[in-house]
Amino acid sequence: MLRIILTVLFIIVCVALVVLVLMQEGKSAGLGAISGAAETYWGKNKGRSMEATLVRITKILAFAFMLLAVILNIDKF
Fold first, then answer.
1. Quick one: 1 exposed, middle or buried, by C-beta within 10 A (0-12, 13-18, 19+)?
2. Closest CA to 65 of 9, 24, 21, 26
3. Angle ∠(22,27,31) on CA atoms, nearest 5
4. How far apart are CA 34 and CA 21, in angstroms?
5. What is the DSSP letter of 1?
6. Are the CB atoms for 53 and 22 separated by under 8 Å?
7. Distance CA 37, CA 10 (A)
8. Which residues contact 65 (CB under 8 A, 6 or more apart)?
9. Is-above-0.85 flag for pTM?
């Protein structure tokens, strides 16, 4: 029963991790750098708190993913 619960939790963490990684913006400036839009104050700081939150949640979910993967494979040794 515990293995089924951990497997379902593992699948939820996997899907959430994929969604969060896809939601994050790339580190490159993109085409906005050509016109100089990325160099303005609002261009640099737009959504910074949301981006930091996404990064923090991604790190937590990555740790949970690794921990659950190890726990689910303990009996394989």
1. exposed
2. 9
3. 100
4. 26
5. -
6. no
7. 41
8. 10, 13, 14, 17
9. no
Placement of tokens 């640099």 in the chain: 44
- The span from the CA of 6 to the CA of 71, in Å, is 9
Nearest Cα neighbor of 60 from 25, 20, 23 is: 20
Q: What is the pLDDT along the chain (77 residues), one digit of tens a residue?
A: 989 999 999 999 999 999 999 988 776 655 555 555 545 555 555 556 888 888 899 999 999 999 999 999 997 66
**Structure token digits, residue 24:** 């994050």
Spell 62-76 as b/e; 16+ CB within 10 A means b.
Answer: eebeeebeeeeeeee
- Inter-CA distances, 2 with 8, 43, 68, 70, Å: 10, 48, 12, 15
Q: Which two tokens stand for residue 19?
A: 């969604």
* Residue position matching structure tokens 């050509």: 34
